[in-house]
Design brief:
Elements: H1 6-15, E1 21-25, H2 32-43, E2 46-51, H3 52-57, H4 68-79, E3 89-94, H5 101-112, E4 116-121, H6 124-130, E5 139-143, H7 149-155, H8 160-171, H9 178-194, H10 198-207, H11 210-231, H12 235-252, H13 262-265, H14 276-284, E6 288-294, E7 305-314, H15 317-325, H16 330-333, H17 342-357, E8 360-365, E9 369-377, E10 382-388, H18 398-404, E11 414-418, E12 424-426, E13 429-433
Parallel strand pairs: 1-4, 1-5, 2-3, 3-4, 6-8, 10-11, 11-13
Antiparallel strand pairs: 6-7, 8-9, 9-10, 12-13
Length: about 450
């Protein structure tokens, strides 16, 4: 069984007296149902699971339910003697977005205290947007992602002591020994091939066969395309969603690494505003990661984002590398000088930053150039620029130099990630091995004596 960090969070919440309903949000195939099912069956005498996708495609028992009385009646029809009391029964509503009225019903299910509930959904960003009465104060919305690199290391035999040693080394600005560095970097490159989708990781651990891993990844990619057809009524929007999603790998190979709107329909002068809903679907469904452009970078970054200028990354680096290299593992594992790995390195960093910071930005300025990523650093109340280098010229970063030299931006530090082992600081630039991205997070300032 794969180790997932979110498991401890779910267990703690279900063991507590917290009355709010936990709602796990994330893309399809990242392991939401599995981890909830495993925790629920371990903690509760009675565990009842309802999948609204299966119900919608089958009997439709819950499809037209709009009151808690109707829900309890139909729940008893499928659960029978597995329903006990609030203290010993957990009801898991999976894929809740299929019946959006249940997002409103959660408030009343919580208040009636009949059973304990937990829920998950893969397109909640879209469903919540169209829900007339969002149950604010009744739910805890928690994002879940596929395995990050730390979880991938653990899946490959790294123990907690080894992870703790690496974290301490990162926090103290120390390099790993050459032997440890080589081992971690090798697994990082394998992560570029496998990614973090649980089925792909399990296949890799079982077979180490790239063909079988790629088959899993391709099936997930196809599923994402099918989902677009399910949730969008207009045929043209379905087409454009698929078109934009399929464009991501090739666009990542370009210098600017962003979707060129005129290429969607091959129409010169086409506008971003014509595809707002299509971009929102890809982002809110979790199958693409958005990085928003910032031209005037100041903390907090959300105040300065340019909504009509963004980069899109695939949500999983393994799916990206499968599209770029198919069954050839040598471009990534073999360090072939002629192959530019910038796209996969930038994508894996975007994937990690999204999981650890929630929102990701990049710097785009006509005069000063472009910096790969910007994130908020709450501990210093400033922004943190991050450059990603896949080659040996990692010390060349003119745009980053220009950005950090602007006094008005109050940039305390910046980071350059590369394959180089040595950790060092030059001015306000920290050079780190790329795998240390696993420890980057938005650290809050010390909370002691902060009253209001």
């Amino acid at each position: 069984m794969l180790f997932r960090k979110i498991r401890a969070y779910i267990e703690e919440l279900l063991r507590s007296d917290e009355n709010k309903i936990l709602l796990i949000e994330g893309a399809r195939q990242i392991g939401k149902s599995y981890i909830i099912r495993d925790v629920g069956t371990n903690l509760y005498k009675n565990f009842v699971e309802i999948n609204f996708v299966e119900d919608d495609e089958g009997p439709g028992i819950f499809k037209n339910v709009h009151t808690t009385e109707e829900f309890y009646l139909r729940l008893s029809m499928v659960a029978g003697e597995r329903l006990g009391s609030y203290d010993d029964t957990l009801v898991f509503i999976d894929e809740i977005q299929y019946y959006p009225q249940f997002l409103t019903l959660l408030k009343f299910l919580k208040e009636e205290h009949r059973y304990r509930f937990i829920s998950s959904g893969s397109l909640l960003g879209i469903a919540l947007k169209s829900t007339t009465s969002v149950p604010v104060g009744s739910i805890i919305l928690k994002n879940m992602y596929q395995l990050d690199f730390e979880e991938f290391l653990i899946a490959n035999g790294f123990g907690q002591d080894a992870i703790a040693f690496m974290r301490t080394s990162f926090e103290q600005g120390q390099s790993l020994s050459p032997e440890v560095h080589d081992k971690v970097l090798d697994l990082f490159k394998r992560y570029l091939l496998v990614g973090g989708m649980p089925d792909a990781v399990n296949e890799y651990l079982a077979s180490h066969n790239i063909v079988k891993v790629r088959e899993v990844q391709e099936s997930i990619k196809v599923l994402y395309g099918i989902d677009a057809s399910r949730y969008e009524d207009e045929a043209t929007k379905k087409l454009y969603i698929r078109r934009i999603y399929d464009m991501i790998p090739s666009q990542m190979e370009n210098k600017k690494k962003r979707i060129v709107v005129k290429d969607i329909r091959d129409i010169k002068g086409d506008r971003f505003s014509n595809y707002t809903e299509e971009f929102e679907y890809l982002i809110n469904s979790g199958i693409a990661i958005a990085s928003y452009a910032i031209s005037n970078p100041k903390y907090p970054l959300a105040e300065s984002q340019m909504k009509n200028l963004l980069k899109l990354y695939m949500n999983d680096v393994g799916i990206l590398s499968s599209q770029l290299y198919q069954y050839n593992i040598q471009p990534i594992l073999g360090d072939i000088p002629s192959v530019n790995l910038g796209a996969v390195y930038e994508s894996v960093v975007a994937q990690e930053l999204k999981a650890h910071f929630n929102k990701v930005f990049y710097y785009d300025n006509k005069q000063k150039g472009e910096v790969d990523f910007l994130v908020d650093d709450s501990s210093t109340m400033s922004i943190l620029p991050i450059e990603v280098k896949s080659g040996k010229d990692y010390t060349v970063h003119s745009a980053l130099d220009k950005l950090t030299s602007v006094p008005d931006y109050h940039i305390v530090s910046s980071i350059v990630l590369s394959n180089n082992r040595e950790v060092r600081v030059e001015g306000n630039i920290h050079y780190l091995p790329v795998y240390y991205v696993m420890f980057l997070e938005n650290r809050l300032p010390a909370l002691k004596d902060q009253y209001f």
